[in-house]
Each structure stands twice: as C-alpha cells, then as structure tokens.
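::Encoded backbone::
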Amino acid sequence: GEVMARALAEIGRERWRIASGEVLRVPRPGDAQAVWPPFLPVLMRRVDVAIARTSPPWDGTPPVREVEQLYMDMIAAARRFIYMENQYFASRRIAELLADRLASADCPEIVLINPGEPASLVERSTMGVARARLARRLAAADNGGRLRMYYPSVDGGDVKVHSKLMIVDDALLRIGSSNLNNRSLGLDTECDVLVEAEADPAVTNAIRALRHDLLAEHLGAEPFEVAAAEAEQGGMHGAIQSLMGRRHTLVPLDHREPSEIVQIFADSGLPDPEEPVETLVMLDRAMPGPARRGLAVRVWSLTLLLTALTIAAALWRWAPFSVWAVVWPWVQGLLALRSQSGISLMVIGGFLLAGLLRLPVSLAVLGTAALMGPWPGFLNSLLGVLSSAALLYGFGHVLGRAKVRRLAGWKVNRVHRALARHGILAILLLRLMPVAGFSVINLVAGASAVGFRDFMVGTIIGVAPGILAMSVLGDRLLAVLRTPSVENISVLVFATALVIAAQFLVVGRLGRARAPSPGR
C-alpha cells in the first residue's frame, strides 16, 4: 500500500492537459485546484495509428521486419530534426543509416538520449561496447556537428532510461517496445505504434508538446522554457545547451570502451544477434538433397553408440568368467596408465591424430575420461580438442577456400557464409548442432574470414558442455566395468539418458527455426 501510494503521488506531481496545442500544468496534490486521485490525460483523439512489428522466422513462418523498415523510413524522412530516447544504442543497421544522413548536405539535428554508464557488467560488456564504437563511428562522419548524445542526470546521479520513443520533425511520433539494438530488428518480438501528423496542426502541436515536455523533464525546466529556448537558439541543440546545468540536466555521453576481454564478449554476437541464431546453421537450400541426411545420421549414430555402450556395461554384471578374463586386463591397464608421466601429451597427440583422420571426437573424449578420470579427462579432452581445432584451422588458412572446397565439397558452401558473417556465434552453433563434421568445420573456418580469436572462443564455449557430459559418461562406463553394482549401472543409465535427451532437445530446438520454403 505504501509503495502504491508513493507511485500515485509521483504520477500526480507531473500531470498535464493539452488544450489548443499548448501544454498546461495541472496543479499538484495539495494545491487548492488539485484533482485527486490523479488521472492520465489523453494526448490525441481520433488519429490513425500505424503498427510496426518484429517477428523472427519460426517453424516455417516468414519473418516480419516492419520495425526495422519504419526506422529506415523515419530517418530518411527527417528534414529538421530526429529526437530519440532509448534504452540502448547498439544497432549496426541504425548506425549506418544515421551515418549516411550525417554525411549528407541536408542532415537534420539528431538528439539521442540513452542511459549513462550501464548498471550491470553484462550491459557494459555488450551494449556499452557497441554504443561506444558506433558513437565514435558516427562522430567521425559528423562533420557538421549535427549529432548529440546525452544521458539524464539528477544531482550528479545517472537516471535510468527505459523508454523507446522517436520523434521526427514534430510530424512523426513513434512509441513502442523496440530498442535500438540488433535483437529488436530481427530476433525478438516487438510492436511499435506510429502517429503521423499529415499536416494536421492539432496533431503536430500535440507531438511538439510531448517533445517539449520530455526535454523539460530532463533539463529541470518548464515546457514553455524549452519552447522559448528552441525558438531563440534556432533548434534543439542550442536549446539543450542553454538549459543545461540544473539539478535535472542532460550530460554528454562518454564513449570510452572497456577492457579487451570485455570487448571479446561483445564481438561474439551472443548478447545482441542480428537474426535468430537458429537460422545461422539451417542452410538447407545450399545443400544437395543427399547431404541433408548428414545431421540426422550424426545424431542417431551417437545415440545408438551411447545406448549400445550403456547396455553392454549394464550386461557386464552378468557376463561369464571367460569374458571377464579378456576384458579385465584391459581395465587394469587403463587404470595403470593414469599414473604414467607424459600421459597428457599422449592424449593431446591422440586428439591431433583423430582430427587429421576425421575420427569422431566423442569417442576420443569417452576414452580419455576412462583413461584419466572425469575431471582430468575433461581438462585434457578440452585441451586436445582445442589443439586439434587450432591445427586444422591453420591447415585451412594455408590451403585457402578453393582447396578446402575440393577436400570438403558442398560442406564449404554450407558453413562458409555463416562463419564469415557471424564469427563466434556461428562457431558456437556449429559446435552445438554439427551440420558438418568437427574436422570439416575447423578447415572451413580457417579458410573463411572468421578470425582465430573468434574461432577459439566459439569453440571453447560450444564444445565444453559436450566434453563435460561425455567425460562423465566415460568415467561411469569404467566405474561399471570395475564395480558392476546396481548403483553404478543406474547412474550410468541416467547420465546416458540425460545426454541423449539434451542432444535431441538442442537439435530439435534449433531445427524448428528454418527459413520458410519458397512456396510459403
């Protein structure tokens, strides 16, 4: 009740009525003429409203990118000014459009209000990095000083900006859910509404009144002061500059970038992808018909292999002595090798050889875990996988795309474009959903434009969960061979079921987001 009362009181302090194109401040609670409880005034009546949506492709449904198109149209239509308030500024596409306007002779004034320093480390390392880079790029294109970026501050403290609003020439008003980032243009589901004045003075005045009200709130002024300063200074830039410095004020944004490790995460595309990540690896149209069976064959082969090994291990409890006599020395030999010096080098060498021979990495991980135990097996398998990936990446880089295509055939065309465009994100997805073999992906990545750093980061993130799961299974397999108790067998069966279920869950989830067929 106390929280609600405080919220209602805050609303009541800043109420407005719009009459004859002018904003009149409603008396505050406690004044003689105050109306209580507070009400929300109507800004405009009987106006047409356009709707712009973003909806990603899903399960055969085509994408909707009206939000992106509306941004393009509004930026192109601006003649006097563009006013934007948004939580983020990280969209490469929006920055390109603004850069084009800044380079033109008829560039309007552009005011962008963002939050100050992002509150969380995640935001600083993702949207913060992107904003700093895009802002510097726009500053380089802004020869006429037409762009200003601010954050609101009260008594020296940052004010969180969460609005998503854009006004152009007091003729176009846009309010909705879309942020100025890549996700809102193609990945998330968004909905914005647009009002166009269409030369109607009442609508134009209402949009202008809203803009003056917003600037007055940020600058600790009254709307009529903003209007007067704008008329006197000849535009928003001058008006803002003349009214800055009060308790409520706008502060120019600082575009410094964080540390290198933070920038690596931002470069990955993971926090702000430009399209649904699932579609990066669903390149069915680029594949010949017979090749489309590759993923299904890999998934079912691994499933059958794990199932067969688990069943065999479970039956080991009732195996005859003659079978024990053959298998047990091998188990003892594996256990003896754990304490041998140089075992890590032998394991890494085995992974390098397996990569060159294009052998399944999963089998090598299972064997390593059985040989070294779960955690040493995981660490050595991860090191072995990364060493093999780096070696084949280097071969692909030296050979070049043409020679790699002759070695891998259609698979180069299948993954090359995704790798070149999306870097870390594409590598990560190709590890999670292997539409091509481990060795093939490494070769193609080396022959593509993806950088070595992005390749290795994407590989680490993508393979680590699978290596951990297979290491646990390998260790449990050996545990059942050593002690075929009901408890060990139950744990093995449960772990195998989890790995298989996770595999089908990932493939099924990613596989549903296919681009629609040409006939739909």
Remarks:
- The two ends are 53 Å apart (CA to CA).
- The CA atoms of residues 48 and 195 lie 7 Å apart.
- The chain has a mean pLDDT of 78.
